[in-house]
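Components:
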Amino acid sequence: MDEAASVRVLVADDEDDIRDLVCLAIARAGATVVASVADGTAALAAARAELPDLAVLDVSMPGATGLEVCGALRGNPATAGVRILLLSAGASADDVARGLAAGADAYLAKPFRVAGLVQQVRALTTRQPA
Amino acid sequence: MTSAVLGSPRPLRRRWGRLTPRLDHTLPTTAMVAAVAVLLGVGALPVAHGELVLAGLATASVAALVSRLVPGTAGAGDGGLTVAVVQLGAVGLLGAGTGSAAALFLLFGPVVSLVTLPSRRGVVAAVLGSAAVLAVPTLLPGGALPPAELPAALLLGPLVVGLGGLAVNEAGRRAERQVAVIGRLETERAALLTQVQSRADELDLATRMLAARAQTMTSVIDAVTEQSIIGTDRDGVIRVWNPGAEKMLGLQRPDVVRKRSIVDFHLPDELAAEAANAGSGAGLAALVHAAQEHGSDVRDWTYVAADGQQRTVSVAVTPRSDDRGEHAGWNFVGTDMTEARATERMKDQFVSLISHELRTPLSSILGYLELVMDDEEQPLTDEQRKFLTTVERNAQRLQRLVGDLLFTAQVEAGRFTLQPEDVDLAAVVRAAEETIRVVAATNGVDVHVDVPAEALVVPGDAVRLGQACDNLVSNAVKFTPAGGRVTLSLRAAWQAADGTVVADERPGAVPVARLAVSDTGMGIPAGEQGELFTRFFRASTARRNAVPGVGLGLTITKAITTAHGGTLDLQSAEGAGTTFTLTLPRPTA
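Structure:
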């Protein structure tokens, strides 16, 4: 877990309960939540300020959707390297395809298993260069 | 009408009949003999040999009587010939008896009678008879002619009679032939007229039937006020425009028929998009290409009414033929679906929204449950774990329901896509058995799996095929009482063109995979089997036995099967059990 302890994660979801759940899962994965926000605009600002290793973004958010935040991060050289995990209530193949096309590294449909989220976080962060 | 123009055939025979030789041939002679008798009585004629005169008059009288009384003797037949010859004899006797040349004029009567007979025998009889009549007086004492003139008189008289008689006879025969021809023609004409009359009557009947049929068709089409019926020629120019079209598109029949094209009422962009999509020609060709290929086509098009308003119309397009079977144009029967489609869209949006909104609280419930139940630092008591397991099971049930609702909405909206790959159906079936194993054991249902040891691969979406298989297996377990049995049987097979499935490969049959899920459950009443794949439908046996469910599983399974090009069939007997058979195409070897 030492390697993961240095991993810094941004969490953005407009549902407080879900956001807390995601934060708990990230803690279980041994990573650190550097910012926890409730809308897309705040997520973008926090990402630019904190430059996290991983951003866990809800797709349906006020301000800017997770897809828009995803596109903005990829479009900015400073944030283009941030790993992105999208969470969404949309579970269809089209939804997943749209998320990956926007530049996400992984896509997790709600309701998700906490163990599955922990696994995804670990997978995405262990590939992170030290 | 036709019959009045043609007129009825009139009997020609009645007009021409007078010309035919129906005269009493003996009558002139009888009249002349009567005149001679009168002349003799008044002494205007001399009597040389009284007995001959009497014999002549008697003979003439007998001939006259016979011709009056005996049928056939006054006409043109052999009887007439005989009577005329007898009369000739009477004239000979009178000539000889009177010794007067005047009596010879009496020859005229029987000679005319003889030469006007149809047969030439009459002429011969006239020649011979006249010769005899001329000769008889000269042979008697005090003959009328000096012996020196006798040969000339005997030669000249019959010659004149012969030649004249022949001419008359020939003219008579010709006239007779002409009359016969005219009679035949008259018969033929009458027959023809009858035929013409019969044809005219048939034509009249056919015309009236055709008019009645046209009237029926027109009245039916005119009675349709809620659907547009538009008929065009091959170029799309409108020929038929019913009240439904008037109502839907806001234009009256006289303003449209032969003046406007069907294309005028369509969105040009929609037609152009269809043309590009199907690779067909623009305009009318885009509208009718599918009907041209498949014989008919039903789909939604946007109609543009006269006031510019757009209507979503389900249009059935079919080609129309003329009476010779040649392509004559197109029929467009349209139903206004504007409101219905808007309602469907709203319903889909509603289902999507609700499903989406239900997922968020479900995420919290299931996520936090997982955290509590998997917390190794603070293990739960057995009772707590039992209660929370119940909460989790129900939350998962709710999650499945939401997923099913959303999926059904996607199927209905035609937004259902597959992620194709090679799927091992044997593995899918084994996984379905594993999933249901615990529930089946709890319910006391034995699940038997009969799948090939090797992989049975079909092209398809692994997740959706798994879902379809899970639905069938969980249904079977759900509907089977304790002590019952569920059998999952998977086989490679071949399907013939008529749909029959056989175990061995044979010509013309395509390879398929067949999964039969059989149970010994409560069964489905025969009258309800047709509705089983309708969404939210639940069999009465399920409701009666309080089997949980909302009636989406089979709808979804059917949709998945159809999307894979397969079929889903069932056989069921109430109280005995049900077998669902899922048939999917597999690649040719």
